[in-house]
Amino acid sequence: MELSLGSNGKAPNALQVADFIRERIRRGRMVPGQRLVEVEIIRQTGASRAKVREAFQRLEVEGLVEIEEYHGASVRDAGIDEVRQIYQCRAALEGLCAAQFITNASAAQRSELVEIQRQLDACVEERMPEQFGRLNMMWHRKLIEGAGNEIAASLLERLHVPIHRLMFESFYSSERLKAANADHHRVLDAIMANDPVRASAEMQSHIGAGLGVLSLIHEEVLA
């Protein structure tokens, strides 16, 4: 049984409910096509029906939820063409952030990025794909945070939500872990060399490689 967001005596607002749902989509606990049952979310969060519906509307604007008349809300699915466009946007924005990290990040943020990379290396050695996935997200977020570009960060927050759960189930194979980690090292080497042009190019290449893997998985699923 899940703890209610409103267990402190104060009912959550629509933004908190939207965060609650978004995180479950991110973690695959709510999957594309799944109906979002109002009464169940009310039970889990302690929010009012009005706030839950407002949260649905917020998530619809973000492209995460579909609301159909007489059918209610459900987690939105997306085709491979949309996923491709998302990755193209990510490549451009994260390439920019990699370059801006060099000039804007503090010494502490640089050290934190290096430390996360050290932990990623250990995950590859010990074959820990789930932990690698969590640390990979931390690595990207730390780089975006250090870039200091709030507009890019806001846009990327939306683009980081996994859409094709089926594709992501086999995303972190042993080979992919090694390839992704090697990409990280190339980005990090460029950052430590204070080379923004190379850092941006390496990051864009890294995101492009991720799209390539997703496209292959998509083809295998449909084969």
- Mean pLDDT, to the nearest integer, reads 86
| Beta-strand percentage range | under 5%
Envelope shape:
globular
Distance between the termini: 39 Å
Put simply, the count of helices is: 10
| CATH top level class name of the largest domain | Mainly Alpha
Uncertain regions: pLDDT < 50 for 5+ in a row? Answer: 164-169
Please provide the ordered H/E string of secondary-structure elements: HEHHEEHHHHHHH
Account of the protein in words:
By secondary structure, the protein is mainly alpha-helical. The chain folds into two domains: 14-75, Winged helix-like DNA-binding domain superfamily/Winged helix DNA-binding domain (Arc Repressor Mutant, subunit A), CATH 1.10.10; 80-222, Up-down Bundle (Four Helix Bundle (Hemerythrin (Met), subunit A)), CATH 1.20.120. It is built from ten helices and three strands. It has a three-stranded antiparallel β-sheet with strand order 1-3-2. A hairpin with a 3-residue loop joins strand 2 (65-68) and strand 3. The longest helix is centred in the last third of the chain and has 27 residues, at 196-222. It is globular, with a radius of gyration of 19 Å. The termini are far apart. The model is unreliable at 164-169 (pLDDT under 50). Residues 11-78 form the HTH gntR-type domain. Keywords: DNA-binding, Plasmid, Transcription, Transcription regulation. This is GntR family transcriptional regulator.
